[in-house]
């Protein structure tokens, strides 16, 4: 595409209810929306950083700074830019993968819209809808958790993931198992434990979970391998898998037997596909994680999750699980426990300009 400019906006999107993990509580989703302006039309992307650097070292106002100071100028320096070259152009800047992912998605969407080609087809989707799991935040008590999970099961979600942290783990998991029997169930610790907690983590083995997600720190690859040898529950890394290289290393060390793929965390949808491809070749199941995406990222995640190696239900839930009002005109909805892969050109969703304006709190336009 002939890139003419990039517009960045910080949005504050109200959540339907607070979302609590081992690292904190969010009541408003602060996110950056990217608009790529090209000679052949525009494209949209989303930078999935959180307001605070608690899930990873990235955070929204750091993203806002690095995008304007380094990454967007590097892209605008290119006369013609294919989506496949965005990663290369941004490679000299270390880290900031969520920012790179959001910029790449906007360029990719612009290029595909201009071609009239859907993102799913481009990425290699083999399904027209994907099974939908839901990530449930830490609640005030095990009873409250059972109540919340029951609501999602009634809506049709096909897999439940509950967030855990030290002291809010075994009783919570037991309560959900007791209440709902053999439902597909998994837990996510978001790095809240250490190897000293091995006895607690081993207690979770009796609940026959699909997996335990990221029990230890992002850089604890060897410790995850040690833990994996002592648990029967499969370990699935999230935070640790920041690239295809990191995925290869974690698999080689037997630190993980399943991988959660999030395009933001790994620097873009193209790197996400590379991780998918290597896992498919190695027989390692993957699933699509989420970062409370708006309708932009949610459409892209549905497309990604439709690739053949995504054999476990992902955190690709309906928009209404998080947002009373989305910024796209056709938000993702749950239909018999599934979310449809959009079929229109590019992301296959259109921005709702009024909603976008209403939630924008900061804006900047950078031109060539
Ligand atoms: O660890 O998967 C995670 C949300 C923000 C940061 C990290 C995580 C999550 C979720 C929500 O679990 C996934 C979703 O978008 O539904
Ligand atoms: Mg996770």
Describe this structure in words.
The protein has two domains: 3-116 and 351-367, Enolase-like, N-terminal domain (Enolase-like, domain 1, 2-Layer Sandwich); 121-340, Enolase-like C-terminal domain (TIM Barrel, Alpha-Beta Barrel), CATH 3.20.20. The strands form three sheets. A seven-stranded parallel sheet has the order 5-6-7-8-9-10-11. With 368 residues, the protein is α/β, with parallel strands linked by helices. It contains 13 helices and 13 strands. It has helices spanning 60-76, 83-90, 97-115, 119-123, 142-155, 170-180, 198-203, 221-230, 244-252, 263-266, 269-282, 295-305, 353-359; strands at residues 3-21, 24-38, 41-47, 129-131, 133-136, 159-163, 185-188, 212-213, 235-237, 258-261, 286-288, 338-340, 360-367. Helix 1 crosses helix 3 (97-115), helix 2 (83-90) packs antiparallel against helix 3 (97-115) and helix 5 packs across helix 6. A hairpin with a 2-residue loop joins strand 1 and strand 2 (24-38). The model has no long low-confidence stretch (mean pLDDT 98). Bound molecules: 2-succinylbenzoate (OSB) and magnesium ion (MG). Residues 55, 135, 188, 190, 238, 289-292, 315, 317 line the site of 2-succinylbenzoate. 2-succinylbenzoate binds at residues 55, 135, 188, 190, 238, 289-292, 315, 317.
């Amino acid at each position: 595409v002939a890139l003419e400019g990039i517009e960045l906006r910080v949005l504050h999107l109200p959540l339907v209810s607070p979302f609590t993990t081992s690292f904190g509580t969010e009541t408003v989703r602060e996110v950056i929306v990217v608009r790529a302006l090209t000679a052949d039309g525009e494209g949209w992307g989303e930078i999935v950083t959180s307001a605070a650097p608690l899930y990873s070292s990235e955070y929204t106002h750091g993203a806002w700074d690095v995008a304007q100071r380094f990454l967007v100028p590097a892209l605008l320096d290119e006369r013609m830019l294919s989506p496949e070259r965005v990663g290369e152009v941004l490679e000299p800047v270390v880290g900031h993968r969520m920012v790179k992912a959001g910029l790449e998605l906007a360029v990719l969407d612009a290029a595909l819209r201009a071609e009239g080609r859907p993102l799913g087809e481009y990425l290699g989707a083999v399904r027209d809808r994907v099974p939908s799991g839901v990530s449930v935040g830490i609640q005030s008590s095990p009873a409250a958790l059972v109540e919340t999970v029951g609501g999602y099961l009634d809506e049709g979600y096909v897999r439940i993931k509950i967030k855990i942290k030290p002291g809010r783990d075994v009783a919570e998991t037991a309560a959900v198992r007791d209440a709902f029997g053999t439902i597909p169930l998994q837990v996510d610790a978001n790095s809240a434990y250490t190897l000293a907690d091995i006895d607690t983590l081993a207690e979770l083995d009796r609940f026959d979970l699909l997996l335990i997600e990221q029990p230890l720190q992002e850089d604890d690859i060897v410790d995850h391998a040690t833990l994996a040898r002592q648990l029967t529950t499969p370990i699935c890394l999230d935070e640790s898998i920041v690239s295809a290289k990191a995925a290869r290393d974690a698999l080689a060390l037997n630190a993980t037997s399943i991988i959660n793929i999030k395009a933001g965390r790994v620097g873009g949808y193209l790197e996400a596909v590379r991780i998918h491809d290597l896992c498919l070749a190695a027989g390692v199941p993957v699933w699509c994680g989420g970062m409370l995406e708006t309708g932009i990222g949610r459409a892209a995640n549905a497309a990604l999750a439709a690739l053949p190696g995504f054999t476990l239900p992902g955190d690709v839930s309906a928009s209404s699980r998080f947002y009373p009002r989305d910024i796209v005109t056709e938000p993702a909805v749950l239909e018999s426990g599934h979310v449809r892969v959009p079929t229109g050109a590019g992301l296959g969703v259109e921005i709702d300009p009024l909603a976008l304006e209403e939630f924008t709190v900061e804006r900047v336009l950078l031109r060539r």
